[in-house]
Amino acid sequence: MQQKIAQPAKKKQYKKICFKDIMYETGETLIFRETESTTVVGKLVKIIPEGGNPAHPKWPMIEVQWYYKKQDLDFKKLGVSDEDQIHFGDNEVFPTNHHDKIYVDCIQEKCKVYGINEYDKLETIDAKTTFFSRAHYNPLQKILVPAFKDWEQFCVCQKPLNPNNLYIKCDMCQQWNHPRCMGMNDEEAHQTEEFYCNRCRKPPQDEKGNPSQ
């Protein structure tokens, strides 16, 4: 009789974890404590039952995919000028291929990461727990995917959208522009009820290109 070879039992893969009476699931984006005064954003990728905190042996470890912020990017290697850095949002994060295994007690709270267009449509935003993303960052190769030059562009200056900055919409062409690119300051933009961009304000021309009377 042929003997069956015993297969090693597969380790159970946990999808949820309860910590301090709050349930967390793999795939959720969370805020983690980095130091006493700083936090970082990451995605809960895996729950590791063994290898917990020595002070709390029943606590599992977790694997986290880190989301970098603009201050973590190497702008010089990315070819992004100092002037163009203003087009990166304060609440913008970049998923990376940087993973770490950390103690579960680093979890601080849940957060939300939206695509930039969805984020821009939100009526209310909690700046502490609401973020947006439009590119992945490879910290080893120092590249963004898609690259900064390939991001969707707005305004007459043809620069990427930063939802944290103020824009004003032309009532004729419906395009969004920076107030400064229209010769206005932010206060003037807030007080303007009807706005036409520089291109739409140009006087109509006749067939020869001369201003019509």
UniProtKB/TrEMBL annotation:
The keyword Phosphoprotein does not apply. GO terms for molecular function: chromatin binding; zinc ion binding. Residues 22-148 form the BAH domain. InterPro entries: BAH_dom, BAH_sf, Znf_FYVE_PHD, Znf_PHD, Znf_PHD-finger, Znf_RING/FYVE/PHD. The keyword Zinc applies. It comes from the Eukaryota. It holds the Pfam family BAH. Keywords: Metal-binding, Zinc, Zinc-finger. Residues 152-203 form the PHD-type domain. This is Phd-finger family protein. It comes from Stylonychia lemnae (Ciliate). The lineage of its organism: Eukaryota, Sar, Alveolata, Ciliophora, Intramacronucleata.
